[in-house]
Each structure stands twice: as structure tokens, then as C-alpha cells.
Amino acid sequence: MKRSTITATTGTALLLVLTACGGGPSEPAAPPATSADGTGSPTTAAPSPTATATATATAGGTAEPAEETDEPGEDVVYSTDAQNDPEWPSGGGDLLPVAVRAGAHEGFERVVLDFEGTGTPGWRVEYVDVAIEDPRGTEIDIDGDATLQVVATGVRIPEEDELDRVLPSGEVDVEETDAVEEVYVTGIFEGQNQAFIGLDSERPFRVFTLTDPSRLVVDIQTED
Fold first, then answer.
1. Which domains does the chain have, with CATH numbers?
2. Can you tell me the distance from the alpha carbon of 181 to that of 148, in angstroms, rounded to the nearest whole number?
């Protein structure tokens, strides 16, 4: 597992990327996808007392532990197939991504994207052969032998005085996991927030959202 950390994009660089997107979020440019196993609407579980959003952006640093153990509804199952929420693709929203957390639990490892704002993010998660950053089209070297792409929708462009709270682009080091070797966040573009999860192998995963605060949860199965 990598222990080194790559410096995150500065607030100024992030502002330049956001400015290039236009004045606000628009319909995501991703192609529509058919639902796969595990893409049904989850039953949102009540958050645990430890499930609070981290106010400080953590890209370029070490991920805080994902300690909550909330379980989704029975219709949310582990699969290696591409998964998306029932309303994918969706546009618009009031969410700001503020942190990434990762943790190991019995039978799975969990990666959590924390958001500030109202509502819950739309999402699509799938294995990709190569990690390609939107919108630049550049290839990113992700640790591990398998890569999950995570696209969250419903995010907005931050104001200048919010840049210190928004999760910037860059590598997020993980220390609490074995299967999860790296998380990399590319930033906000056209109402989407893209991230990649580097894994030791292609494992079944499940995806669901939680509220109070808003969170997107990706669980990677480590035991049958």
C-alpha cells in the first residue's frame, strides 16, 4: 500500500478549473446506463453518531477513518457489474464535496465521500481499464490491480470563500484498509465530482447513500 502523498491542487488551480466549467452545474455529460444488479433504490439507514462530515478538505492528505457501519436495504447487493442510482444521469444540486474517508469492517472495506448541502448525490460506480480524468482526458496512474470509477452528481460550483472547504483534486492516502490501496479525486466539472478507487483486485462492491450529513458510500467486499 502506498504511504507517500502527492500534493493536492491548490485553491487557485481549483478555481481555474471551476471557472472553465461555466457559471453553474449542468446536465452531466456521461452516457445513460442501464441498471445492473444492485442498482435499486436503497433504504437509507440512520447515521451513526460518528458519521459526521469532515470540514477540512483532505485530498493530498490521509483519509480519516470511515467508522460508521450502516447497512443498506436488502435490494442493494454486492456485484462487479456497473451500478448507478435509479435516476442516473441527473443534473443540478446544492452539494459540495468536502472529504473522503476509508475504513475496514468485518467482510468489507468502506470508502465514503462526504458532502455539505441539501439532498443526496446521484451516482454511478464501475470498473474501468484506465483512469481518465474529466474533462482533460489525461490518464491517471492509480495504485492497485483494479480501478473503480466513482461519479457523483448533484454538486455545484463553490463560491470563492468556500474553496477552503471543498475537496480539492489529488491523491488521498489510505492507511486503514488493505484491499483499498488509493483514492484519487479529480474535482468538480459540470455538476459532477469524479473519483477513482484503486484496489488490489477486482472485487464485488455495493453503493448507497446516507443522510445527515449527505454521504455516498462504496463498500468493497473482502469476504464471501
1. 11-221 (2.60.40.3500)
2. 11
